[in-house]
Design goal:
It contains 19 helices and six strands. With 556 residues, the chain is mostly helical. The strands form three sheets. A two-stranded antiparallel ribbon has the order 1-3. It has a two-stranded antiparallel ribbon with strand order 2-6. It is globular, with a radius of gyration of 24 Å.
Length: 556
């Protein structure tokens, strides 16, 4: 009996050999590469919807669009997906689906980064002396990236920089300014220790320039929050590090997979396979990898941005059937607002349509080209599709006019071509299996302009914006016209749908968020107030933190 008891003691000790766990993975450089790959996977799973191949699951359609809706750029159209409606109507609660899933996604990324950092201090089996600091730099970038979403969405949140053992049930909310300081510290470390030459890393891998780009954004964020001009100076320096590095240029000539087809050099950036430097794109700073039919690439549940922005044109079945040429099968979950996209090429009169949330905008406030110059290539037919020609007999080649009713229902409206995606072998693709430019140089210039505005230097801000406008063949902006609203409009022209619009507005302050929504989103003009600049804290988190009260955000 004693022999059996002794044997049981040894038998019950875990020694994992056939599955991955931190103790048997983080034991070599190869193991840390596995962990690093996991961080990239979690980061891009922000765009995941229903979950495929073990991806993080938001369990709802196009969660990323919750960061576009209830702002100044788009409205929920007639295809009112139930998972987006609480955000469109600003009646989300602490139990609303994406309120919890964004919190969980962020801390999933943060905890995975913390685990890698913890084991990097234990491991002494590295292939090269620089491996340790390299993987720590990646982990700290992703930790900062996770906390970026948390401070934008929830404000004060717990800062956690290691794995808690045993698990704690008494977390407190650390002030947003303090958390921003930690984010900045992580990004400074990453900028000093990530690779320098983007041509010497695999597509999608981080370089120090991605850290500098995000540093510029975070310094600006803290600057608007505290009013400290020094933060704007630091944002300027971080942006200039990228701009002056010599590795990046604004795309100004045709290139890549569709260079010989109708289009322009702005539209080229969004053609499948044209996002990475290997295609000739020197504007991209960080590109998330979602390739079609590629191991480790996109899945049917990844990046439904095309389905959200693309109209349900096929619902007008006398004119259309889904086709790759028309961008695939969209769901029309959100539609661009008329004030910025304009009415060019439509017969939308802005007349009264029953339940049309856009009806209160006065017609004289809507120009043919919206907020674009007539010469601006970002407003070309290759970038905003306004002419829809039927592909069903007897209406093949006949233009289907965009009416107020079609616009409201989500059937047809001026459409953002950058998100079109489909293959002829399956035009009903769900996910968009093309790489996504997360950071690109045009935004770095706009972050630089933001830093100059924070320093009360509109002339330098105008010069930075004019770099972007010149590329687009748009007229230059003068220092007299350069202000926060002009910059926010320019970000729409350049980055609509790419940026998280809620993040951008909130960065400038809750007052700016509320003012822009009131001015441009008539559906919410009598509803929105400053408490809507933050989401509620998920109730499940507050309930689980049973040893200490976990305060809710005001207004919820």
């Amino acid at each position: 009996m004693l022999a059996v008891a002794a044997g049981c003691s040894s038998f019950l000790e875990e020694d994992l050999k056939s599955s991955l766990a931190p103790d048997n993975t983080y034991t070599s450089t190869m193991g840390f590469e596995v962990g690093s790959t996991g961080l990239y996977s979690i980061a891009r799973s922000e765009y995941n919807t229903w979950g495929e191949q073990g991806a993080f699951m938001h369990n709802g359609a196009c969660s990323y669009e919750a960061l576009q809706i209830a702002t100044d750029i788009c409205l929920q159209s007639g295809a009112r997906d139930g998972s987006l409606t609480p955000f469109a109507d600003l009646n989300m609660t602490s139990t609303t689906q994406f309120v919890g899933s964004y919190w969980n996604w962020s801390y999933n990324l943060i905890n995975s980064a913390n685990e890698l950092l913890l084991y990097s201090e234990k491991n002494d089996n590295w292939d090269y002396p620089t491996d340790k600091v390299h993987y720590q730099a990646e982990a700290r970038f992703f930790r900062a990236y996770g906390y970026r979403s948390l401070v934008y969405l929830y404000g004060d949140v717990p800062w956690v920089e290691t794995i808690k053992q045993p698990f704690e049930l008494n977390f407190t909310r650390d002030p947003k300014e303090e958390v921003l300081g930690h984010i900045i510290d992580d990004l400074v470390f990453a900028s000093q220790n990530l690779p320098e030459n983007p041509d010497e890393v695999q597509p999608g891998k981080l370089t120090k320039w991605a850290a500098y780009h995000l540093l510029a954004e975070m310094y600006n964020f803290r600057g608007w929050m505290t009013g400290n001009v020094q933060d704007f100076k630091l944002a300027e320096q971080a942006a200039l590090e990228v701009i002056n590095s010599g590795y990046f240029d604004l795309v100004k000539a045709r290139y890549g997979a569709a260079a010989d087809e109708p289009g322009d050099y702005f539209s080229d950036m969004f053609v499948e396979n044209n996002q990475n430097r290997t295609s000739g794109n020197r504007e991209s700073i960080w590109v998330m990898q979602f390739e079609y039919k590629t191991t480790g690439g996109g899945t049917p549940s990844d990046d439904w941005t095309r389905r959200a922005w693309g109209p349900q044109y096929h619902s007008i079945n006398s004119f259309f059937t889904p086709s790759a040429e028309l961008g695939g099968r969209g769901l029309g979950q959100i539609a661009p607002m008329k004030w910025w996209v304009g009415l060019k090429g439509t017969n939308a009169t802005n007349g009264k349509v029953e339940a049309d949330p856009d009806e209160e905008i006065e017609p004289q406030n809507i120009t043919e080209n919206g907020i674009f110059d007539a010469t601006d290539i970002r407003n070309s037919e290759y970038n905003i599709k306004r002419e829809w020609l039927g592909n069903v007999e007897p209406n093949v080649g006949v233009q289907c006019m965009i009416t107020d009713n079609y616009w409201y229902l989500g059937y047809l409206y001026p459409s953002i071509v950058k998100f079109f995606y489909a293959h002829d072998d399956d035009v009903t693709h769900t996910g968009s299996y093309k790489d996504r430019m997360k950071f690109r140089l045009a935004e770095t210039y706009l972050l630089l302009a933001e830093a100059y505005l924070g320093q009360d230097d509109p002339e330098s801000a105008a010069n930075a914006v004019n770099e972007v406008r010149s590329r687009a063949k748009a007229t230059s902006v003068s220092a007299d016209d350069m202000d926060i609203d002009y910059l926010l409009d320019e970000r729409i022209r350049e980055l609509v749908g790419e940026e998280s619009r809620r993040f951008t507005l909130v960065r400038f302050g809750a007052d700016v968020y509320v003012r822009r929504v009131k001015e441009h989103n008539k559906h919410l003009s009598d509803i929105v107030d400053e408490h809507h600049a933050l989401w509620p804290i998920p109730q499940a988190i507050r309930d689980a933190n049973r040893d200490v009260e976990f305060p809710q955000n005001p207004g919820y």
